[in-house]
Amino acid sequence: MLITLCYIYLWLRFQRHYTAVIRSALHRLSAGHRSFTFSALQPERLDLPREHALFLRLGDRVIYITEPQSCVDLSKWTLLGSSLISGQRLESIAFIIQATSRPAPASPYRTTERVLNWSDYCLPLAYSPGQPYRAIAEASLENFSRLGVAFMEDRLHMGNGLRPEKIVSVLLRETALRELFEQQQQDQDQEHHQEEPELPSRHQHMDGHHLHLSSCHECQELENSTILSVKYASVENIPDLPDDCAAADEEEEEEEESRRRNSSGKPPNVLVFTGGCEEQFLKIRSLLVECVDTDCYAIYHLRPQQALSEPWLDNTLLLVLATDQTLTPQLQLRFLSYLSQGGKLLGLSSSLCPAGLTLRPGDTQKDHLCSLTFTKSDSTELQMSVLSSGSVFVRDGAGGGDVELWGEISGRDEREMAIVRVTHGADSGEAVLCQVRLETAPDAHDAQGFSELKMSNGRRYEVLTEILTSLGLSCELSQVPSHSPIYLLSTDTEQTGLFLSWLRAQAGDSGVLRSVEGDLKVVWAGDESVDVCEGERVLHTEPPESFSQLFSLQTYTHHLQTQRLGRTVLYADITSSTMDLLQGRMLQSPQEVGLIAIAARQTQGKGRGGNAWLSPPGCAMFTLHLQLPVNSRLGQRIPFLQHLAALAVVQSVRTLPGYEVHTHL
């Protein structure tokens, strides 16, 4: 009791330090087998039952400590996909979260911290539909405390109109989920005896469906992703583009938009898990770049620690597992949870096996040549030589997901399953799993049977393209163009003259401006011919009269209203990134010239935190050279710049005809 009073005092004394108090208390009390309950009090009764020991109260949200509570009867619950594998569970706290669809007013204690999606910080195991909706899950101590703090601050999100009302830590018997699984299998067996089972079709590619985390409440999270939230916020009160502005290229734009749109609504992120091997990631990334439209997708390396800790599940269009290392139980649960939420997964020699499948050693040894028969969506077959992973798939007699056979290899006595598609139920995510090395090129240093693999290389790409297309990706390749020349454009003679003087001093007699990102060969006005070395890009200080069909200097100058910013322009139709154009010595250019780099297309656009920036033609892409005194008000608040720039763009758009701001009194 004394400890409890001390915690309450600390909270009253230091206000939001209650977050640290909650975390500390969880770590201390969990060892003593106490139960922690986070609860929202009902408006009609804001007093706490006497039998509960109050730990902390924040408005209508309370935390209290009770004797250990057991979760005994799961007979009326339904297992989720994260329960589909066996093995030791390494998470430390089991809990039940209870929610209703009843609307509730926002808490006055809600902070400005980001909303947490509950399933990103735990492993959901089973659910019980109805009112109230309940789900049982497991989480680490740290993640459980994060969920608790988010609940107290009214920023815990469940989706589909559900509002969490209570979180209770419970004691979960190790055999409880296994007993529930066996019970549901018995129920399914009885149903199968009552009706003639339908034979699985031999590979008919179907449109992707989503395996929701729960069938009725939990998984329509995609509509609430950050990108969609920004989208809806941006178009608020902005009418459709007027007919006289939009009619000219409407059909062409609709065709382009249809090509780029993905049906799931998820951000276009493709994550590649290689067990932490950077070399393998670069190989898989290079392979994917050769198969998919790089203007449509951003490819990232998902490292083991990120896979377990970061909330990537709702922001991933496709997960590629490209390692034959045995996955830990934690990683298996995480990846199966992604599938349970409607995710798409491609397994390349991966040990992941959803329910319905198991792995066994194949007749062909690892990395030895074998003959693959692959059935395409139009029922035609491809014969090709590939390397075996050393394993093959076998249907699990215990049941599970629907398994479609897509590819077989020839064994000693029979044909063996090498490529399969797995789904769970009518509204499922899907996984295409391969136990042949489609990722291995014929010229790999350890590849066996070079000539056979070389002959089958075209069909290898055909199979990969077929699989990626079935998983919802666009495989209409757009050739990555080479970099175009860079032009110095002037909107102010005095500022451009100052920049040219600085540039001549930096380039010296060689006329080359050197930097880590690449060397620029400066072509001065009047130069008739210039020798350009390999790897150098050309910067023309006096552009021709018609230097681009994608940029109008006259229109740009007409709308530019600044005194300095953006007055000196470095323009390129195509460049790796506008940021690269202003790196190196360009960062030392005089502040007075207002330097800006503009491109019609970027081939390697850069976002914050190592993120890729998709930059097909038609986007507004520029990098502005801006210097701020560190001791200025804005210099002390640098992160505000990104928000100011975004607001400036919105305000600029709203000055266009048909996009004006409408004020409603």
UniProtKB/TrEMBL annotation:
Pfam families: BPL_LplA_LipB. Residues 241-256 have a biased composition (Acidic residues). Residues 183-207, 241-268 are annotated as: Disordered. One of its GO terms (molecular function) is biotin--[biotin carboxyl-carrier protein] ligase activity. Residues 189-207 have a biased composition (Basic and acidic residues). GO terms for cellular component: cytoplasm. Gene3D superfamilies: Bira Bifunctional Protein, Domain 2. It comes from the Eukaryota. SUPFAM superfamilies: Class II aaRS and biotin synthetases. Residues 554-665 form the BPL/LPL catalytic domain. This is Biotin--protein ligase-like isoform X2.
